[in-house]
Amino acid sequence: MTEKESLKAKDISIYPTIAEPKALRDVVENDIYLLGGQVAILCQFAHPALAKGSYKHSSFAERIPQRLRNTARFLNVAVCGTEEEKKAIFSVIHRYHSRVKGDDYTADDPELHKWTAATLFVSIIFVRETFFGRMDRAEMENLLRESAVFGTSLRMPPEMWPKTLEEFWEYWDYNIATLEVTDMARSLAKDLLYPRNLPMGMAWTLPLARILTVNWLPERLRREYNLYPTLASQAAYLAIVAWTRTVYPVLPVALRGRRHQIYMEDLKKAVERINQTGHWGGV
Question: Alpha-carbon distance 79 to 83, whole Å?
Answer without folding.
Answer: 11
